[in-house]
Amino acid sequence: MIYLDYNATTPITSHARHAMVETFDCLGNPSSVHGHGRNARKILENARTQVADYFAVPARNVTFTSGATEANNMILKGFGGNIFVSAVEHDSVLNIRKDATIISVDGNGIVRLEALDLLLKNSSSALVCILAVNNETGVIQPIDEILQICKSHNAHLHVDAAQAVGKISFDWNSLPSFSISAHKFGGPKGIGAIIINGSLHLKILIEGGGQERSLRSGTENIIGAVGMGAALAGPQFDWKTLLPLQKKLEHNILEYCPEATIFANSATRVSNTTSVAMPGVQSEVQLMHFDLNNISVSSGAACSSGKVKASHVLKAMCVSDELSKCALRISYGWNTTEEDMNQCISVWASLYDIQTKKHNEANYG
């Protein structure tokens, strides 16, 4: 099996795996005052420090959650003022506050800075939520410019950094708040964090014993936290080394089928993501063909209970429904080889040949 769906989830790194296995023998509850409990608390706080050190923020600013979705919910549900979100946000932002104002994007899915500036001029007590790296297209938002606009209007900027960690260079401690998910950068599923640099009211979604400074009650996921901390503290993969594979994939697809569309190919993107439309072939057909050839790819976000549906991201980019329904997301990472990419190209081409032959037979006999 060839795995080309890194934006859905990544393999656990050996460093994170080893740290988690070592923690399985940790018996105590971090809230207990006896020796076992104190040992568990020490392990948990060490993991918190590893996360904090990676982002160059104080450890007290890191609150563990189940992932970025929960963190985004805490921010959006807790804010009492005007909320602005881009049209290409993840569902964990778009589906939370129906009263949010949508910020328009251009044909590459990049936030229109002049539109954001205008919206904030006419608003007070504002929260702006931006996805740093788009999970479907890999487009990188101009976070620095967005931050400056927000500062000029005294607005709070919250960044969903789920797809950005490790893939882009950024001064994370300059952000008022951001959310992360461990399984997007080599850690385990079911653990993430919200990092808040400053003061911001959060919605307490889980009440109880007052863990995580009363922001998220419930016995902490120590093994998950250790895995996330180890993934960030261990050897870091250089995502830029995937650029040759990205160029190879996209060049070969367009050379074989000039009518194919690589979405946002003129924008600044991360080097591990290709969103491509095979003309006239539905996403579901493509997914099944790749799966039958032992290659795992996706049609877009993997957070919709396994559903294949039209992309709101491509719609916001003014892509036609017809073309959007033919979109495929291919995302790669540290285990991807050139042979994997060659096989991916071959399978893509074989499907296109099959569909072209069917089309010609249906129309010309």
Describe the structure.
The protein has helices spanning 14-23, 35-55, 68-78, 91-94, 113-121, 143-152, 222-233, 243-256, 283-292, 312-316, 321-324, 338-364; strands at residues 2-3, 62-65, 82-86, 101-103, 126-131, 156-160, 177-181, 192-196, 261-262, 273-277, 295-296, 327-331. The protein contains twelve helices and twelve strands. 38% of the residues lie in helices and 13% in strands. The longest helix has 27 residues, at 338-364. The chain is of the alpha/beta class. It starts with a strand and ends with a helix. A seven-stranded mixed sheet has the order 2-8-7-6-5-3-4, sandwiched between helices. The chain folds into two domains: 2-8 and 238-364, Aspartate Aminotransferase, domain 1, CATH 3.90.1150.10; 14-233, Aspartate Aminotransferase, domain 2 (3-Layer(aba) Sandwich), CATH 3.40.640. Helix 1 packs antiparallel against helix 7 (222-233), helix 2 packs parallel to helix 7 (222-233) and helix 8 packs parallel to helix 12.
Observed structural traits:
single chain, 365 residues, alpha/beta, Aspartate Aminotransferase, domain 1, Aspartate Aminotransferase, domain 2, seven-stranded mixed beta sheet, three-stranded antiparallel beta sheet, 12 helices, 38% helix
CATH architecture assignment name of the largest domain: 3-Layer(aba) Sandwich
The CATH first-level class of the largest domain comes to Alpha Beta
Placed side by side, the strands forming the largest sheet appear as 2-8-7-6-5-3-4
Number of domains: 2
CATH superfamily of the largest domain: Type I PLP-dependent aspartate aminotransferase-like (Major domain)
Question: Could you tell me the strand content as a percent range?
Answer: 5-15%
Q: What is the rounded distance between the termini? A: 37 Å
Low-confidence stretches: none
Helix content class:
25-40%
Which class of secondary structure composition applies to the elements?
Answer: alpha/beta
Kindly identify the CATH topology of the largest domain.
Answer: Aspartate Aminotransferase, domain 2
